Amino acid sequence: MSKILVVEDEKHLADGLRFNLEAEGYDVALVETGEGALPLLFDAAGSFDVLVLDVMLPGKDGFAVVRELREARQFIPTLILTARGRPEDVLRGFGSGADDYLTKPFELAILSARIRGLLRRRQWLQASSQPLAPAPNDIFTFGAKDQISVNFDLLELRVGEQLFRLTLMEANVLRNLIKHEGKAVSRKTMLDEVWGVDESTDTRPIDNFIVRLRRYIEADPTHPRHLLTVRGIGYRFVAAPE
């Protein structure tokens, strides 16, 4: 049974989330504050499979909670709930290390789909049935000039002498593009394969992830050579550009 920690200070919403998620077979724990959530996550590292985290919390907000988790190398898949759907707020959430977001008010069916997507992606990284390359620890290496390698087990990206820590969802997005190496991958396809949600969902978070990955991978993010934009469709990964 998958365990979910819900951090929400609105009691009626928290109780409703627990009732519905437990009805779907999840083991759910509730906490009202970021200060209360962090000890649970640190003291029982790995015991929760997904964190559902409200942004607007009393005291330490959701952005700060995610940031502290990632700085401590705690990469539990995290879905933030926000009443603010402005791009800058969403980017701030991803910048803190969140894997996905949902704007209030939301439908429970959409929340459930997002949680299933996070669980599926975590299992995908832990035990991929189709590894990308026959390398130990699920490592994929590319790039002709500056050798680049990504370790999907450790969520680490190495570019030359630089080492970047990836969030779970950053790794999932990159993995999906590598899987389709050389082919254009539509945003709708990525929504289905990476997030596990249907094509009606907002695709802008995908663009935000690409921006972040380009900052890690590309020598000049404004002129990418590995993560290419396919106008009107989506993106294409090129392992060894000419």
Low-confidence stretches: 127-136
Report how far the terminal alpha carbons are from each other: 48 Å
Mean pLDDT: 84
Radius of gyration, whole Å: 18 Å
- CATH topology descriptor of the largest domain: Rossmann fold
The CATH superfamily name of the largest domain is Response regulator
Structural class: alpha/beta
How many runs of DSSP E, i.e. beta strands? Answer: 12
Q: Characterize the biggest β-sheet.
A: 5 strands, parallel
The CATH architecture of the largest domain can be given as: 3-Layer(aba) Sandwich
- Tell me the strand percentage band: 15-25%
Total of helices: 8
Helix content: 40-55%
Shape: globular
Main sheet: strand order: 2-1-3-4-5
Number of domains as seen in the coordinates: 2
SSE string, helices as H and strands as E: EHEHEHEHEHEEEEHEHHEE
CATH class of the largest domain: Alpha Beta
